Amino acid sequence: MSATPKNRRLSADSLIPRQEAAAASLPKATVHDADGLEPLWDTATAAEFLGISVPTVQRMRSDGSGPRFVRLGRGKRSRIAYRRSDLAAWIEANTYASTAQYPKGK
Asked: Residue 87 is inside which H or E element, if any?
C-alpha cells in the first residue's frame, strides 16, 4: 500500500478500492481445506486486509475491540492468527450508516 500524505484524509471511497486491491493479493481464505477449516492469516496479513497498521491490530487485540483471533500454542512463543471470515464479521459489526449509530461510551 502506498503512503497517504499527512494533509490528505482517507475517505470511504478511497479506502474501499485499496482494500479490494489488498484482498486480491492475499491468500484466498474462503477456500476450505479437506478438513473444513479456513486457512489462517498472520497479524500482518490481517492488518493489510483491514487497511490498518500491525500495531493497531495488536492494540485492538489487547483491549478487546478488534476481530476474533486464534491463539496457537501457549506462552511467549504462541502464534496469533486470523480467519478471513472473522475479519469480515468484524467489518460488518463495525459498519454504520451514520455517526449517530456509534456505540456510546467509548
From this structure: helix 84-93
Q: 47 near 57, Cβ under 8 Å? A: yes
**Cell triple for 81:** 492468527
**In 3D, which of 30, 42, 31, 18 has the Cα closest to residue 88?**
30
Long-range contacts: 72-78, Cβ < 8 Å, 24+?
72/40
Q: Which one, of 47, 3, 49, lies nearest residue 26 by Cα? A: 49
Q: What pLDDT sits at residue 4?
A: 47
Q: How far is CA 84 from the centre of its chain?
A: 8
* Position 26 confidence tier, pLDDT thresholds 50, 70, 90: low
